Amino acid sequence: MSLLGCQQNVALSDYLNSKKDKEVFIEPEPSDWVKYSKPVREYMYHRTQAVINNDINILWERYPKLKENIDLEKGINAEKNEVKTLKEGFDLLDANYDIESYERIKVNAINDNEVIVLVHGSIVYLRNDFDESGGEYLMKVFLKQKNNHWNVVKTDEYTTSEYKEWLQEKNE
Question: Does any domain span residue 18?
Answer without folding.
Answer: no
